[in-house]
Amino acid sequence: MADHPIPRPFIDAPLKGLQRLGYSPAQLLSHAGLVADCLADPDATLTATDYTRLMDSFWRLTNDELMGLYPTPSHYGTFAMMCKAIISCSTLGHALHRGRRFYQLFNGVPGIEISQDGQTTRIELQMHSELDPDHFLSESLLVIWHRLSSWLVGQGIPLLSVGCAYPAPPHAALYQDLFATPVRFNQTATYLLIPRTCLALPVSQTPASLRAFLRHSPADLLARPTPHESTTGRIRQLFRRYDIAELPDLATSAALLGISGATLRRRLHEEQTSFQKLKDECRLQEASLRLARQDSSIREIADYLGYTETSTFHRAFRKWIGLTPGEYRLQQRRGHYDNQE
Hints:
By secondary structure, the chain is an alpha+beta fold. It has three domains: 5-62, no CATH class; 78-223, no CATH class; 231-340, Arc Repressor Mutant, subunit A (Orthogonal Bundle). The chain is 50% helix and 8% strand. The chain has helices spanning 9-20, 25-32, 48-62, 78-86, 92-103, 136-153, 175-179, 207-213, 219-223, 231-239, 250-257, 261-270, 275-293, 298-304, 310-321, 325-340; strands spanning 5-6, 46-47, 111-117, 120-126, 161-163, 183-184, 191-195. The strands form two sheets. The protein has a five-stranded mixed β-sheet with strand order 3-4-7-5-6. A two-stranded antiparallel sheet has the order 1-2. The longest helix has 19 residues, at 275-293. It starts with a strand and ends with a helix.
């Protein structure tokens, strides 16, 4: 596992749950074998390895895999038992449905529902988002179900989109690294959207590989980079190397990926998107970052992104994130002030 840094919002949120359960950060750091003052600096982060140790110790110390962030605890070992129940399944769809039934055995804990619509499958969290004010539990469950599914079939499951039944949090810009796919806020549910064909993928793991997997899971699932290996994900990664005004065109992008333009179009179509949609998404992600920084007017941001009319930028941004640029900027400003208190 690469030792990339884990951003501070994903550290501070579980520590709040820890204190609700009656434990101190010092107790947790000692249990995890980490230096007592490693988080004293409010800007300090943890390596992926240390974060895995921290979260694994959290669950062992508190006996709650929901980290004190939900009214009903899920005792340590529940996730492992669910994995043992699904490892003998033949396909990913079979495993997800069995996992859904497993968590239905426990009253009051978050579960999932699985639905299909045309060429897509939606994995929807069944939980009360108002009980998760920092959204860390929602983020964690989305990540765990996606990473677990990818591990089961031995390949990255393409994420077509992610929906969140809450407004964009102050750290919304980090969601791109977390999911590498469009994230829509203020939705009616919190969900992952994947290609329907993925449900037929065979489970390639075995009870033996599961034993090794469970030595550090689900803690290390939260620390792993996204396994999203679709063509959509590769295009997004490619765009991130360029300034927004210099994004490569389709022919150049295809050549950089070592495929033809026609193949690139076909693969993106199979993943329910298009090259132009990904370009627009990249522009709007840049817009969210510039709006959060508060140092440019909305008109200036629209001009920089190539919108000839501010009203067109307003409509595009609202469609993408569920808020107007002004509403999003105000929300980010409030979140900044809240974090200073």
